[in-house]
Amino acid sequence: MKHFLHLTILLLILVNVAWGQNIEGRLLDNVSGEPIPGAEFLLKKTNNSAYSNASGKFIFNEIKPDYYVLEIKVNDIVIKSIEITHLSTGTNLGDISVTASNTQSINDISVIDISDLASIENENDNFSSALSAGRDPFIDATTFNLIAGRFRPRGYFNEDSEMIMNGMLMNDQDDGRVLWTSWNGLNDVMRNRTNVVNLSESDLTFGGIGGASIIDLRASSQRDEKKITYANSNRTFQHRIMATYSTGLMKNGWAIAATASYTYGTQGYIKGTHMQGNSYFLSIDRKLNDNHVLNFVVFGSPQRRGRSTGSVQEMYDISGDNFYNPNWGFQNGAVRSAREYRIHQPVSILRHDWKISNKTKVMTSIGVQTGRYGSTRLDWFDAPDPRPDYYRRLPSYATVPETKDQITNFLKADEGNRQINWQALYDANATRNYTIENADGIAGTDLSGKLAAYIMESENYDNQKINFNSVINSQISEKINFAGGVQYLNEKVHYYRRVEDLLGADFYIDFNRFALRDFPDNKDAGQNDVNRPNRILKKGDVFGHDYDIHTNRASGWGQLIYVTPKFDFMAGLMLTYQSFYREGFTKTGIFPDNSFGKSEKNNFFNSAFKGGITYKIDGRNYLTLNGTYRTRAPFASESFVSPRVRDQVVSDLKNEQITSVDISYLVRYTKLKARVSAFYTNFRNKISNDVFYHEDFQTFVNYIMTGIDRKHTGLEIGLEYNLTSKISLSAAGALGEYFHSSRPVATISRDNSAADFVTDRTIFIDNYYFSGTPQTAGTVGITYRSTKFWFFDINVNGFSKNYLSFNPDRRTAEAVKTINPTEQNELYLSVIQQERLPDGITVDFSMGKSTKLKDGSYLRINLNAGNILNNTKFISGGFEQLRFDYETKNVNRFPPRYFYSYGLNYNLNVSYTFAR
Fold first, then answer.
1. Element spanning 831, H or E
2. How far apart, in whole angstroms, are the C-alpha atoms of residue 692 and residue 805?
3. Do the beta carbons of residue 800 and residue 774 sit within 8 Å?
4. What Rg do the C-alpha atoms of the chain give, in angstroms?
5. How distant is the alpha carbon of residue 817 from its chain centre?
6. Closest of 804, 812, 735 to residue 770, by C-alpha
7. What is the DSSP string of 745-793?
């Protein structure tokens, strides 16, 4: 009976295919002849829609004979309409050609590329595979609308997804970060992006558990245009001017795209956050023949940007400003910031696309990144802490009420009293007349002058990487598609400190005064570098720690997709070898034997498996089930106990283990697009390494936790519904439950000691919520798009279940050892409870207008306004300080620091596109 039922269903399907009157065709680029996947086809007078697959093929099944109008849409923009007289024998429209530049959206704020959709399909499939069915409504709705609340889908971080540009992996290997600010001002050329949704298949990468973002930087993929853009904003900059020139693929086989911009602002939304930067981009394509295309791209964004940091609520209240920033002060009447980002990390990539046949293609790229990434701050030698929100300077530190009132009145009296006193720093340096004996290690050489009490230094993380990546895609048969690749990445991160400004002093000295106190019998203990003792420092000199972290990573992966009329099956495997080591350039006085030169290599072998099933209910409804199990090497930035002074690694380093599964229901109708997903992710054997300066020990303390497990479960919902041809609704939400599921073990060490002063301390954080993102968030919006090329939309966003990043040492038996939970319950709970941040709501608005002028040129205006209700009390994040008063158990002695989301903010773009 069971086999008979299956046979009956099969016969019904065959009958439908045989006797249906289909409308079909293929969409091609009229310049390159390449298929265009992911375009939406709407059959007017019906409720039918279809999407082109990776071969450009689309099909409407069982359409009754009649007269129809077929609309072709890309990114919700109609690019072509075709009148059809559909006959009972069926209609084959053949190849439909459109200009590639016409497939770009008129909305310059957000454009998602469709040229690299991650699916290779059989042209004879009844239904397109789910991933080819257009944009993802959850990603579209949440990417920009929930950024104000620091929302991270599924609670994942940068290391859980991949960022790929022209085939080059941009994630830093020492910590998994993606430093977006390195590409500031390159908006025009970074729009062509494909999002691989979480565990979905991809034809360019294996992907992380959070998927991948793939940006196509080829000149032939850029919009054919000549454009000038001016932007005005009150966020991180005030003014930006940008020029873009792109030819598209020309008849002679060349394509050129170039962008340059200048960004400037004396102050962003927060005081002290100035901005000055340039950006450049050049991409050149050469089509050698129909089978080979070369591309070379180079880009970068040199910049200086003032930083803000979170502060304690006490200072927010005293200043009457939830955007108080302690990092700046007045110097000669002008604002000067002590904390700046100083960045320039240029990237060069050579890419080769090889069309071996109509069914097999290979993409190979070689990329290089170099340059500098630095962050400035104050440093001091035998002098008081100059930070204006330093806890000893606050009213709460005073024990006498009169003194408390005096400090409060002083801080409230003048804004300058709450900021860095630059003149006081210069004055302190002017009085520091010292004589350094045996200067620069030369016996008998004495140097007299003004030894700096305060300097401006920069902490640098200069990343240099070389990436080789080659990917093949092949349609093995009508039902089987293969994607695979090999990748090698060599990365070197140079960590060092550098003197940026002596603040009027004559010199600084490379010396560790605290080590000399702890090791009085070791005459070399105070030397940061025994090879260069008593080294005299001038502006631009490197001092303190100076070392490289080298990482090598080689991987190979493969993925098979088996396509049937009703089911798609996907399976993938990746194998990775990774190693890292430290190379020190200083021989520290307290660790002379394991600080200079190359350390031993730490080697790890990892594997990753993933698989998925898609059930195509019909051409508009899909069910998908995806899962993965993988291991990941620990990051080098967390694996060394104290890389600033020695090459000792955390004991018993292990691979992290990750298991993840999700199930989704996808809907793709003419008026409705939706995705509902449930997910579960289990992280095991993570490590963390937090560093902070301990005033009592007068050295840096390393707080290392091993055996950290987390579980992330939740539900994602995203939908778009077209009420009319002009009005659409969107909604997206996430209900998450991200929590720690283990009791890690802590080891605490100091830079000035080889011995751990705390080992095997149990951290009782099982069932504590994971911090850093709201676990529940959502957005609801309405958009109006006029046929006269203007639009507006408004979104209401909500954020909930966001928790403060906690100090693990307060969640230990030692922290509450002297507290009686029954008699001192309030004190006990104040130490161990996790602080939940208040819920928040923001309202965002955007509008735009595109006008075609008489000469064929375009004038476009876009305005994005965030938090238009000016909610300035929305705390988006924060952290407990890692110091804790063990004697009094007073959690307010070192109070937490908070970050507030911007109030009313905006970004206005005006662009002029020259006529072709």
1. helix 825-832
2. 15
3. yes
4. 30
5. 41
6. 804
7. EEEEEETT-SS-SEEEEE---TTPBP-SS-SEEEEEEEEEE-TTSEEEE
Q: Is 656:576 a contact under the CB 8 Å cutoff?
A: no
Burial (0-12, 13-18, 19+ Cβ within 10 Å), 35: buried
Lookup result for tokens 């579980």: 711
For residue 313 the two structure tokens come to 């609520």
Q: Over the stretch 735-790, which tens digit does the pLDDT of each residue have?
A: 999 999 999 999 988 877 777 788 889 999 999 999 989 999 999 999 998 888 89
Q: Which two tokens stand for residue 176?
A: 């998994």
What per-residue confidence (pLDDT) applies to 124? Answer: 31
What is the arithmetic mean of pLDDT over 528-550?
Answer: 94
Separation of alpha carbons 795 and 328, rounded Å: 35
Decide: helix, strand or coil at residue 684.
strand
Round to whole Å and give the CA distance between 573 and 485: 11
According to the 3-state scheme, what is the secondary structure of 204-245? CCCCECCEEEEECCCHHHCCCEEEEEEEEECCCCCEEEEEEE
- List the structure tokens of 595: 């600080």
**What tokens were used for 631?**
């291991």
Higher pLDDT, 117 or 780: 780
CA dist 603 and 654 (Å) reads 10
**Among 61-70, 185-194, 756-765, which range has the highest average pLDDT?**
756-765
SS3 690: strand
Closest CA to 771 of 741, 739, 808: 739
- Quote the CA–CA distance of 98 and 71 in Å, as a whole number: 13
Structure tokens at 758: 């705390």
SS3 state of residue 15: helix
**In degrees, to the nearest 5, what angle opens at C-alpha 400 toward C-alphas 394 and 404?**
35
Give the angle 381-382-388 at the CA atoms, nearest 5°.
Answer: 80
Gap between the Cα atoms of 501 and 102, Å rounded: 52
* Token pair 């089911």 in the structure block, residue: 567
Q: Report the 10 Å Cβ neighbour count for 743.
A: 14
Could you identify the residue written with the tokens 């004697």? 887
Nearest residue to 657 (alpha-carbon basis) of 688, 687, 628, 685: 685
Pairing type for strands 23-29 and 91-98 reads parallel
- The secondary structure of 61-110, three-state, reads CCCCCEEEEEEEEECCEEEEEEEEEECCCCEEEEEEEECHHHHCCCCCCC
pLDDT level of residue 7 (50, 70, 90 thresholds): very low
Strands 211-215 and 193-197: antiparallel
User: Do strands 758-762 and 727-740 pair parallel, antiparallel, or not at all (unpaired)?
Assistant: unpaired
CB 597 within 8 A of CB 546: no
725, burial (CB in 10 Å: exposed 0-12, middle 13-18, buried 19+): exposed
pLDDT at residue 49, as a whole number: 76
Query: Could you tell me if residue 399 is left (phi over 0), alpha (psi between -120 and 50 degrees) or otherwise beta?
Result: alpha
Give the CA distances from residue 777 to residues 144, 754, 791, 840, 879, in Å, rounded to whole numbers and listed in that order.
13, 46, 26, 10, 20
Distance CA 68, CA 88 (A): 13
pLDDT value of residue 916: 81
Rounded to two decimals, what is the model's pTM? 0.85
**284: which 2 tokens?**
């050149």
SS3 3: helix
Question: Backbone dihedral region of 767: left (phi > 0), alpha (psi from -120 to 50 degrees) or beta?
Answer: left
Report the alpha-carbon distance of residue 252 to residue 686 in Å, rounded. 54
Amino acid at 883: R
Mean pLDDT value of segment 598-618? 95
